[in-house]
Structure prediction request, 323 residues.
Amino acid sequence: MPQITDYLAPRIGAKPFINKKWLDQLKLPIPATTEELYQTLKAFKEKDPNGNGKADELGWSGDKTFLLFDGLRGAWGLGNAGGKNASIDIGPDGKIRFYTIDPKYKDLLEYMNRLYKEGLIDKEVFTQETPQFLAKAVEGMVGTMHPSSPSVAGPSYQDDYVSLPALKGPDGDHLYSQVSPLTASTGTFAITKANKHPEATIRWVDYFYGEEGSKFFRMGIEGETYETLPDGNVKYLDVISKNPKGLNLDQAIGQYSPWPGGGLPQLITEKYNQTGNSHPAAIASAKLLEPDIPKVILPSFMFTNEEQDRLNALSGDITKYVT
Prediction:
C-alpha cells in the first residue's frame, strides 16, 4: 500500500535552503548558479557570518544520506526522471539509463570533491546520523541544507532560511530532480500469513486514507497537540510548533505519531499536513522549484524475485564504485 500526497511540497523531500541572515550579513545575493554557490559557501566559512568570532560555521551540512548530491545533480542535467530510482534517468535517446555513465556525472563528482576538500561541506557528513545534524542546525551553525523544511533548525533559527532556486550548472542545465511521484512511497504496509483477521486489518489501515484518519495521523490529539480554528482549519499547539524544550517540529510531534520520516500508509493532504512541509518556507520552496522539476517522474521500479536477488548481489559493488 502506498503513501499518497495531493500537493507538491511533500514530494520534494530534500529542498534547498540557505541562511538568508548570513547572506544579508555578508551583503551577498542568493546564489543562482553552482559557481555562485561555491563562492557563497566559501564566504560562509571564512567571513564569520554568525558574528561570534569563531570559525564554527558549516557551509553545508546534513546527515549521511548526503542530500546535497540529490539536490545538485540536476544542475548537471542528471536525474531527469525524479528521485525514486537511484542513479536512473532518461538519456538523450529517450531510453532509461544508468546516468553514472554520462561524462557529466564525473564533473558533478569533481565539484563535490572541490567543496569537500576546501572544507565547505561538514566534514562529518558521511558518518553522522540525523540527530547529530539536527544538533548543529538548532545551534545556528548551518549555512545551507536540504531538509524538507527549515523547521529542523528549531524555533530560534528556522525563520533565518529561504529557498535556493534550481541552480544553473556549468553547461547551463537547470533542473531540480529530487522529486517523488504522487505515490511517494510504495510497500508501506503488509499483512503476514499469520494474521487471523486480514479484513479487520485492512479496514484499520484504510482509516488513514480518509479525512479523519489523515488528520489524526498528521496532527495528533485535539487539545493536546493541535486545535481546530473557527474557520475549520487546524493548527499545532505551541508544545509542538514552539516546543519549550527546543525540539524541532518533527521531534516534538514524533512523540505522538510515527509520521516523521515518511514511508507510511497514509494520505497526506495540505489541509492536515501542518508539519515541516506546511512551513511557509517549504511551500515557497516548492513553488519556486516547480517550474524546474522533471516533466516525467518515474515510480519506484518493481522487480521479480529473481531480478531482486540479482540486483541485491550486484548493487553493493556498483554503488561503491560509482560513489
Q: What stands out?
A: The longest strand covers residues 142-145. The longest helix spans residues 305-322. The mean pLDDT is 91.
